[in-house]
Amino acid sequence: MSDTFTSEEVIQGKDNKKVIRPFLRLSGLEPLVVRPETNFINIGERTNVTGSKKFARLIREGQYEEALSVARQQVESGAQVLDVNMDDALLDGEKAMTTFLNLLAAEPDISKIPVMIDSSKFSIIEAGLKCLQGKCIVNSISLKEGEAKFIEQARICKNFGAAVVVMAFDEYGQADTEEKKVSFCHRSYRILTEVVGFDPQDIIFDPNIFAIATGIEEHNNYAVDFINATRRIKELMPLTSVSGGVSNISFSFRGNDVVREAMHSVFLYYAIKAGMNMGIVNAGMLQIYDEIEPQLRELCDDAILNRREDATERLIAFAETVKAKGKVIEKDETWRLGSVEERLSHALVNGITDYIDADTEEARQKYPRPLDVIEGPLMDGMNIVGDLFGSGKMFLPQVVKSARVMKKSVAVLTPYIEEEKKQLVALNGGVVKSAGKILLATVKGDVHDIGKNIVGVVLGCNGYDIIDMGVMVPAEKILQTARQEQVDIIGLSGLITPSLDEMVHVAREMKRQNFDVPLMIGGATTSRTHTAVKIAPEYEHGVIHVLDASRSVTVTGSLLNKALRKNFLQEVTQEYQKLNENFRNKKPVKQYLPIAEARKNKAITEWSNFTPVKPRMLGTKVFQNYDLAEIAEYIDWQPFFISWELHGKFPQILTDEVVGVEATRLYEDAKVMLKRIVAEKWLTANAVIGLFPANRTADDTITVMSPQPGTGPVNLECLRQQLKKAPGQPNFSLADFIAPAESGLQDYMGAFAVTTGGDIEVWLEKFKTDHDDYSSIMLKALADRLVEAFAELMHKRVRTEFWGYAADEHLGNEELIKEEYSGIRPAPGYPACPEHTEKYKLFDMLDATNATGIILTESLAMFPASSVSGWYFAHPEAKYFGLGKIEKDQVEDYATRKGWTVEEAEKWLRPVLEYDM
């Protein structure tokens, strides 16, 4: 047997017997021995459906033979192990893994190297183990599901003869510090070697490589922690290997390959020195450390070794100034060599404000009149922006940046234009021409305006004059301003459901006051059907629903073009009339139960085996000036991109073939601003929570003991699903999740109100003064993300600390986003409880306005806009649900419970009514 090994692998043991050195030995068709002098093993990363769009597409389309070309390219680029991952929600993972590995086995040029079976599902790993020849690596197992599961999976891997990657997780989460990385790995090592019988050399630790330079201070030391932990792991367990996903380190620079490749090479330079001997990396995209451009190398050194407090900012600033040309890095300043017109156009298209003041002044001196600069090069540039946006070659964040450049340039010219007006008022040349004048307003009672602001920016980029009246604007003020300013179009926006009624009121007033300008409708709760059925019949001069900002330009252009307007309005009117007729003539396809029957089909009927957990505190608790840095750790980024009309799952959107580059830029800008928000305390975060004794006292009524002095019990009125369900499927009501009084159990529920909107107006005014719509919209979007994160954080603290019914919960942010916790926090106005007036009770119980500064508008919106409130339910079977439509018998019952007339109930419940009023 000794003849199969080199002399370096065989040593003389006691009694002159030959002993095989304990190296990690892997094989495909050919052996791979990982010796100390091997230095570093490249694990090819592209045969991974989560890491390569091309590979994922080929696998989803069943083009397995073509997918082998990706594997071949990895081998040719120097990969010594091939990572294969089939974790995709749309794939049959076991089938895909089996098919691909079986085909791979027939390709000697690929199957000569060992395979790493990579999956978060152990069933896929087992399927792969059954296909492979030689000795493979399993990626991965860990202690996150406890020792018993860890031992079971490790034994299966050992029986197949595989080496294993052990992730630095335990039952309470992932290791994010040096100490945790070392201790988690050592605990795993002892179990594997002492209980399972693994050879130490067959153990590969992955101590978690996390992204650095994210803009969050706590992340700055992640690379240092990994490098130091690697050194200690190799000292403590010298025969083991250390691996990791290298691309994670540069996650915050997705879309910028120049910086990413440099970061990977610099990180590996130090990690390999510490003992990291393998890693998942694109083998064809690594640079030699000494050949990295010196300035970039120093910046990467600073960030990875956390040598400077401003390392992140400096690296981000550098990343903005470079572009890739093969392996050459070049500062892209060539556009500065063009004419002033070319420079202005370039600045507008690319959103560059650095030179706009000087270039605008140069153009002003070149042109006879300052107005000529606007009507000439500036409008030419904005026309290019409009064309690119309309054709899908530019995205919303870029358009908003372009608008910022335009506004700054116009601000330079405005004093000169005003002076010219005074001198030449009789010559009819002192007014800036526009394509039309449009009034935009968020309706009375509503405070949400991000969408409206974006529409204003987009239309402004297309030459329209925008009169933005802000939020909570009453109908009379909208119409008075529209008449005074002689606007060409009125645009209404709203987010909460009561805004729909206010839009109907505005349309009626427009008819009564004999307006003849078109009315555009937009906002999250609006729809084409609602516009056609409820608003359009009230006003005859054109009512058009606009789905999003990208559609507003086309609609506006059609409305203001005399040649197009008549036919466009006729087509819209005919379409809406048809929608109206279809709506009113529709025959219910769905079957509904009488409310009495629906109540018999409750979600939870058995209470004898349930003991409610008494909260560790009862009453209310106020939190003032909560730490924004802690809140930021809980951000769910996906809705942030949606607010900018960039759609895709996060973080995959950062590498999307269409929007990936712009999504990455937006994400980087957001992180820079987020860091300033946290460090400079731009926003104030306040919260109040309350936990109270509660019982269900009627089918859909929860009685809560309020803590406020002088107040008695509070009855919370719930609504119940009436749609007829399949057998065994309940008709949910939130009241189902609270123990009935007759059960003899004392149950509990909670309430909360949180805001991150304090002081935001100061910054919004500053950005307005600076003509910086981009920063204004960015701040509002981040404030919205922070308040949702605040709600998530407070709910976690309630579950584990203040109520304590899930004291042992240990969930990461991704698991929180997926709502894998026990209990729910539904908010009044949302699908499970769509009737807004219950907010009055919630605010009274918490004394929320005094505690947090949040006020309720007359339409029950919360101000500041970045505020969230809701209820806490703890029952383990509590779940989120949508109420759906309800019938008149429940509306009448609800009106009685609320002390309303049926008409009042219908007003507040209009969006969920199955019948037409």
From TrEMBL:
Pathway: Amino-acid biosynthesis; L-methionine biosynthesis via de novo pathway; L-methionine from L-homocysteine (MetH route): step 1/1. The keyword Zinc applies. GO terms for molecular function: cobalamin binding; methionine synthase activity; zinc ion binding. Its cofactor is methylcob(III)alamin; Zn(2+). Residues 40-301 form the Pterin-binding domain. It holds the Pfam family Pterin_bind. SUPFAM superfamilies: Cobalamin (vitamin B12)-binding domain, Dihydropteroate synthetase-like, Methionine synthase activation domain-like, Methionine synthase domain. Transmembrane segments: none annotated. It comes from the Bacteria. Its EC number is 2.1.1.13. CDD domains: methionine_synthase_B12_BD, MeTr. The keyword Amino-acid biosynthesis applies. Methylcob(III)alamin binds at E375, G445, D446, V447, H448, D449, S493, T497, A549. It catalyses: (6S)-5-methyl-5,6,7,8-tetrahydrofolate + L-homocysteine = (6S)-5,6,7,8-tetrahydrofolate + L-methionine. S-adenosyl-L-methionine binds at D636, R825, Y880, F881. Residues 435-570 form the B12-binding domain. Catalyzes the transfer of a methyl group from methyl-cobalamin to homocysteine, yielding enzyme-bound cob(I)alamin and methionine. Subsequently, remethylates the cofactor using methyltetrahydrofolate. Modular enzyme with four functionally distinct domains. The isolated Hcy-binding domain catalyzes methyl transfer from free methylcobalamin to homocysteine. The Hcy-binding domain in association with the pterin-binding domain catalyzes the methylation of cob(I)alamin by methyltetrahydrofolate and the methylation of homocysteine. The B12-binding domain binds the cofactor. The AdoMet activation domain binds S-adenosyl-L-methionine. Under aerobic conditions cob(I)alamin can be converted to inactive cob(II)alamin. Belongs to the vitamin-B12 dependent methionine synthase family. PANTHER family: METHIONINE SYNTHASE (PTHR45833:SF1). This is Methionine synthase. It comes from Chitinophaga tropicalis. The gene is metH.
